[in-house]
What we know:
Layout: H1 11-40, E1 44-56, E2 61-66, E3 71-76, E4 88-94, H2 100-105, E5 107-108, E6 111-117, H3 123-132, H4 138-149, H5 155-163, H6 167-170, H7 174-199, H8 205-224, H9 228-245, H10 253-266, H11 274-293, H12 298-320, E7 323-325, H13 331-350, H14 358-365, E8 371-373, H15 378-391, H16 395-413
Parallel strand pairs: 3-5
Antiparallel strand pairs: 1-2, 1-4, 2-3, 4-6, 7-8
Helix pairs in contact: 1-10, 3-4, 7-8, 7-9, 8-9, 9-10, 9-11, 11-12, 12-13, 12-16, 15-16
Amino acid sequence: MEDSNRLFNNLKQFNIFLLSLILIFLINLSYGYFKFLKFNSLEINNTTATVENIYPKQNYYILKLSSNDYSFYTSIYENSQNIQQLDRVDIDFITKNISFIDYIRGFYSKSININKIDTSNSHISNISKYISSQHQDENISQLFNALFLALPISKELRDHCVDFGVSHLIALSGFHLGVLAFIVYWIFYFPYSYIHQKYFPYRNKKYDILLLSSLFLFSYLLFLGLIPSLLRAFVMYVFAIFLYRNNIKILSYGTLVIILLMIIAFLPKLLFSISLWLSIFGVFYIFLFLQYFSKLNKVIQFLLFNIWLFLALNPIIYQIFNTASYHQIYSALFTIGFSLFYPIELFLHIINQGDLLDPIIRLWLNIKAQLFQTSTSVYFTAYYLILSLLSTKFKEIFWLLNLSFIGFFVYIFI
Length: 414
């Protein structure tokens, strides 16, 4: 008799699934390469792109642009057209010496001609203006545009977020999607309960509401433009609904691997997305925490979770980013507080009272940064990753992993 609580009943089903993903990956990669050949056939290309961010330099500006197929950087020496974030531009740029890998992960190119296009009907732009109108401080406006619309922030604000170890809270990810899913679920719950009871009480009410919630979240994801970390979270959310419906274990490392493979198969360019990989690592260590601490008292578990996750991710984060700060020690406390801060601010902005907590945020922004440079040995990172994988099977290795990240924390901060 086949086990109904397994995603694949036998090795043959798993192999068919894996081969299907490989085929999808190759088709998407080939299609991407075909578009690259067309892109690279001309020495000068023209495209319409959205200005994701503007980085002022001493004598010029760097623009980060995104089109339908790729994202890239270019520079302009004056901003006579008053080009701003979220503006649409028509641009001619040089494509010489751009490789296929650069095309996928993003590149820099010299622009020949750039013209601003009217963006008065841009929905994101209008919402961004609505959010900004509720704040007098530019940095606070950027903060909430990042939290709700995933818009890039300035280097100054980004450094401040790095200083306090809250960059993961500013970048939209699974945490934010989880909060939104919870809110949307209960918004649908009461009206649907009446409809469900009156017209089709035979259906699974929770499952139906989860499906309605996923449709709303998918619309939000499309509206923002398939942000990698949010995309990973959404795929996991939908996959979890599927597993729940079929009575299959949701919290498993195999589920995480399958989701990663599915994302890369359908969107190969995300293979180079740091935010996606950090998101995957984050979920992996959440699963590891639940594997060993799920039987603890719920209050203790809640308090320990963010501290443990902060310590566990440090070796990974400092392998990618070389900037540290003593303020990052308080990152776990900020994460706990953010669980209340995010939904409250979302509600306040909806009712046009988004500036209510601005004085507190301004106090935080005025704290002087204490950044310093650090580095992680590649050998230690490899050792740490091996320990992490082995910890899923061996309890003794798990405790060695804990000693390792505590020792790493002492090395970095003490």
